[in-house]
Design brief:
267 residues, Zincin-like, 2 domains, four-stranded mixed beta sheet, 6 helices, 11 strands, 26% strand, globular
Length: 267
Amino acid sequence: MLLSLFENLIAPKPQPTGLEDDSSLQREFEIEVNGENVPVRILFEQRFNNRVTVNKNGILIRISNRQQKEEQRKNIDNLLKWGKQKLGDKPELMDSLPQRKYVHGEILRVGDYEFVISIFYHDTGKSTAKIFKNNIVLTLPKSLTKDAEANACSYLVAKCLCKFFLPIITERIHELNNRYFRKEIKNITMKHATSFWGHCSRNGNIVISVRLLFATPKVVDYVLIHELSHLVHLDHSPRFWKVVEQVMPDYQNAEKHLKEFSNKYYL
């Protein structure tokens, strides 16, 4: 089980500082993919989100050290599984998600909505963001490096979009549930996830990646139906896919779309 690899990666080492105090802390090891040993490097950094890159150099995972160790462990598990699958599906080792470079005044199109990115700077204080009418207003410290600014913008824009679109996604999930499933949903949230499009727990908690909002309504519905089908069958057994097919007979087109264009939807 992949998670067993991380007990030693995350467990405290005989160092003068803890995991969350060392922004340069890293771990390196190898995994086997298609009979080849692939280098894996995990960096724990002062960043807001987590990212994974897959290329000719192997798998590079960047983990926020703002998180608790258990959350780090789960994120590493998910990102490593994603990276391993990517290498298995695409032996040519294609790069994964880039990070968008936001420019003051640019238009960000998300589904049927358009937002104007407005970036302002101040001498001191924290990075903040809000949606005002059709503007996403970002306020950043002048002292940020270019990489830190890009990371902050990505995190803040994603946070704004999650807040804006959560009621819309929630309404659509309940509409589909009432029409096809009639199952109990405990909670619905959105987050900036790069390792999955959606997730449904056995307790009925549904999480949707904000990146999904860049896809077409048909593809969005597929992911929502996929997660709702997990309320019937938690696994990916033939019975599960039968449920998905009953609701969306051409679901495989949406599945194919997400595999082909996953690196086009990013923040």
